[in-house]
Amino acid sequence: MIREGSRILLEVRGLRAVVNGIEILKGIDLTVRSGEVHAIMGTNGSGKSTFAKVLAGHSAYQVTGGSVLFEGRDLFDLSPEERARAGVFLAFQYPIEIPGVANSHFLRLAYNTVQAQRGKEELDPLEFEDFVRDKMKLLEMNPEFLDRGVNEGFSGGEKKRNEILQMALLEPRLAILDETDSGLDIDALRIVTTGVNKLSTADNAIILVTHYQRMLNYIVPDFVHVMRAGQIIKTGGKELALDLETRGYDWVGAEQPAMAGA
């Protein structure tokens, strides 16, 4: 169901992409409107993470066909940095460590860069410290993480919380969460998903990339899309994720030849 007052944020048509000469995305179609949560599910190698990285502008992936509009703008006209400033956010499956760069400095630079793009006031270090500490409460993070190197020595759960902290600070229009549930224990999953739910509004949208239903027990999607071999082969509501949990992915693939024959 399309929500009243919602508008199209992302429109993907026939998207194809290759990496190292191998075609991974083979014609993706997807429309995402404000206020929506879309879950993209599938087995390893189906193209889920490639899709996320292509949207963010990862240099290793070459777009060979199709189009992507973000708020009416051609996404491929924008560099990765411009996409981020425009409101596209990617939470990585494997967040990298940046030793020697204090987390507080990194977060403040990212925040102020986006603020400048939006014509809003930037924060000095003291103002930002109060601001970010308040956001950290959302994710039950210890303020001491601000003084450590970016993700340096963080556990898997702490790295994922730090990713969602960035989301809380940057307030993106489109947040793409690439297997954010990977490596999280049940308590960390609860904290991270609670934070994501609080950041979801009628003005933004979220794309969740995940293997498993368990994350969708906490973040209820409006749409579930199943990817296989670089294409979205089935779309449904939240019930589809429950079917996948109990029946696996093989039955979805088995439907495709029958549908094509029909």
List keywords for this structure.
4-stranded antiparallel beta sheet, 262 residues, Rossmann fold, globular, alpha/beta, 8 helices, 6-stranded mixed beta sheet
Question: Would you mind describing this structure in some detail?
Answer:
This protein has 262 residues and is α/β, with parallel strands linked by helices. It has a domain at 8-100 and 175-259: P-loop containing nucleotide triphosphate hydrolases (Rossmann fold, 3-Layer(aba) Sandwich), CATH 3.40.50.300. Helix content is 37%, strand content 28%. It contains eight helices and twelve strands. It has helices spanning 48-56, 80-86, 103-117, 125-138, 156-170, 186-199, 238-247, 250-261, and strands spanning 8-19, 22-33, 37-41, 62-70, 73-74, 88-91, 98-102, 149-150, 174-178, 205-210, 223-228, 231-236. The strands form three sheets. Strands 6-9-10-3-11-12 form a six-stranded mixed sheet, sandwiched between helices. The protein has a four-stranded antiparallel sheet with strand order 2-1-4-5, with helices on one face. Strand 4 (62-70) and strand 5 form a beta hairpin. It is globular. The model is unreliable at 257-262 (pLDDT under 50).
Quick one: overall form? globular
Question: Which series of helices and strands comes N to C?
Answer: EEEHEEHEEHHEHEHEEEHH
- If you compute it from the alpha carbons, what radius of gyration comes out, rounded to the nearest whole angstrom? 19 Å
Mean pLDDT over the full residue set? 92
Distance between the amino and carboxyl termini: 27 Å
Identify the CATH class of one domain: Alpha Beta
